[in-house]
Amino acid sequence: MQIAIQEPLRHSQPHPARLAPRAPFPRLHPITPNHKATSTSSPPPPPRPACPPASPWQLPDNLGVFELRAYAVSGARFGGAATAEQTVRRLVSASAAAPRVARVGDRFHFGVVLTAAPDAPAAGLHLRVEISLAPPAKPADSDAAAAWPLVLHVGAAAGAAAGTAAEGAAAVAASDERLLMMTASETVEVSFEAEAAAVGEAVAVVRVWQALDASGSDAWREIASEFRWRESDALELRVPVMGSQPEVTLATVTPPLPLTLTLTPTSTLTR
């Protein structure tokens, strides 16, 4: 800041006190009410510390990209607006991988496709994928149990532990699971072997669980039952099961070979 001091106003007649003898002293500018201080230039005031307002909000249940809008309003005056994008996603997302329709007697694989997010932990994700078949609805006009439209084929030990869906078949179960490990941005298809057993609509629920305290050792599958698991994603698969396809006779007609004619021009001499 620069300050300019103005000279005091001079009287038209010398003051009597100035005629008396006095000791010499350096010329000073006395501070009197006649002096005026004038500011010629000044730096801008220091900026206020940034204190952006914070407002917590809960992420929606559905996934996607959402646009956030903020408005600055003071009374009836509009101060401005700003927008930002917020991406909502899971660490692991599942998408269906199932046939549109099956027929009685078909044996096939179906399940889910897992995709890990790019910001997944560097140590990897330890996952457990479970599938369970919903029991068929009991017919209203019959006391007999409804047949399972779809059954899962697992090992004998796994089938006995999960519970069989058909009598006398220890390897046919209503549930199954897989353990796997994924890294960031990785895509893996997890499939289960199934067989269409009866006409109806099969409903399967697939749940994806993430281990919270799993170690990076290769033997984590043997101690997976000791981990704490958190559900990451889930979806429902519906597979209509139709009756067996009757035999179809296909008749093919082979067209005859094309006939190629070659014409050779001849010349006639006339005298």
Radius of gyration, Cα only, in angstroms?
44 Å
Order of helices and strands: EEEEEEEEEHEEEEE
CATH class of the domain at 92-137 and 146-242: Mainly Beta
Major sheet characteristics: 5 strands, antiparallel
**Distance between the ends:** 126 Å
The pLDDT mean sits at 76
| CATH fold-level topology of the domain at 92-137 and 146-242 | Immunoglobulin-like
Helix-strand makeup class? mainly beta
The neighbouring-strand order within the major sheet is 5-7-12-9-10
Low-confidence blocks of residues: 1-15, 156-170
Shape: extended
CATH homolog superfamily of the domain at 92-137 and 146-242: Immunoglobulins
Residue share in helices?
Answer: under 10%
Number of strands: 14
The total count of helices amounts to 1
Beta-strand proportion? 35-45%
Offer a quick outline of the entry.
This protein is 3% helix and 40% strand.
Brief descriptors of the model:
single chain; 271 residues; mainly beta; Immunoglobulin-like; five-stranded antiparallel sheet; five-stranded mixed sheet; 1 helix; 40% strand; extended; disordered N terminus
Describe the structure.
- With 271 residues, the protein is mainly β.
- It is built from one helix and 14 strands; from the N terminus they run E-E-E-E-E-E-E-E-E-H-E-E-E-E-E.
- Strand 3 (64-74) and strand 4 (77-88) form a beta hairpin.
- It is extended and about 105 Å long.
- The model is unreliable at 1-15 and 156-170 (pLDDT under 50).
